[in-house]
Amino acid sequence: MERLRVVELLAHAVNAAHGRGDLLAGLEPARIEVGGGACDLSDALRGPVSPDYLAPEREGNAPATTASGVYAAGAIVWETLVGRAYRPAPSHLSE
Predict the structure, then answer these.
(1) Which DSSP letter does residue 52 get?
(2) Of 7, 85, 19, which Cα lies nearest the Cα of 53?
(3) 62-69 long-range contacts, CB within 8 A, separation 24+
(4) Cα–Cα 20 to 30 A to 71, which of 36, 41, 45, 79?
C-alpha cells in the first residue's frame, strides 16, 4: 500500500478514536492493523507504549491524552514517510 495512503488511514483512525473519546494509550506500529481501506487501532486503546512512541509529558507513568496519541501517531508517520526509526532523532537537520 502506498505510504501516503497508510498515513491518511492512520490520521482518519486517530481522529475517529479521539472523536469517540478514546485515548490511544498504547499507539505503536505493532498495534495497528491496516487493511480493507481502514486502519484498526483497537489494540492501541490499552497497554503500555514503547518508549519510542511515548510523548514526553507521559514519562513517569502520566496518563494518556489525545495530545499523546497525536504525538505517537506523528512518530509513526515520520517512520512511514522517512523509512527509518523516529528515535534517536538526528542531531542536526542535515542528517
Answers:
(1) G
(2) 85
(3) 63/23, 63/25, 64/23, 64/24, 64/25, 65/23, 66/18, 66/23, 68/23, 68/24, 68/25, 69/14, 69/17, 69/18, 69/23, 69/24, 69/27
(4) 36
Q: What pLDDT is recorded for position 23?
A: 95
Query: pTM here?
Result: 0.86
In three-state secondary structure terms, 94 is coil
Q: Read off the pLDDT of residues 27-52 as tens digits, 9 standing for 90 and up.
A: 999 999 999 999 999 999 988 888 88
Compute the distance between CA of residue 92 and CA of residue 50 in angstroms, rounded to an integer: 24
* 13, 41 contact by CB (below 8 A): yes
